[in-house]
Amino acid sequence: MTHPSPVVSRVPDMQPLPAMSGLGIDIALKSFSEMRACENCTMSSVTHTVLIRFRPDVSAAQRDAAISDLGGLKDQIPGILSFSGGSNMSTEGLNQGFTHGFVMTFADVAARDRYLTHPEHEATKARVLPLVDGGFRGVLVLDWEA
Hints:
146 residues, alpha+beta, Alpha-Beta Plaits, 2 domains, 4-stranded antiparallel sheet, 4 helices, globular
């Protein structure tokens, strides 16, 4: 199976990490000294990635509504720059039961931190979490600076 090789980068001339190419994921890296030498680079935005394992009895309409509710936070909470989410459509079989996911980009760490405690986020979490298999055990979150 051939995979596209997307490389997302704010640092000019970054090269994909060859060891990850076989997984269909190319990670752009530079040495630490090269990263420090890039004075025009901004490392302030935060990518917030969430995987969700919905309960098997939750309908497709309920799942779609939950993802839509999460996406609606972009218009309610300042500092969310983008949202993308949906159901797993990978054919690799590596999702470990996670059925849906979303990615948000925040302007900076402070915006992400405000989102975490924002009343709209808390209300959305209260609506979505009962649909998740195992509650918080059915959610995987990973954030990084981009």
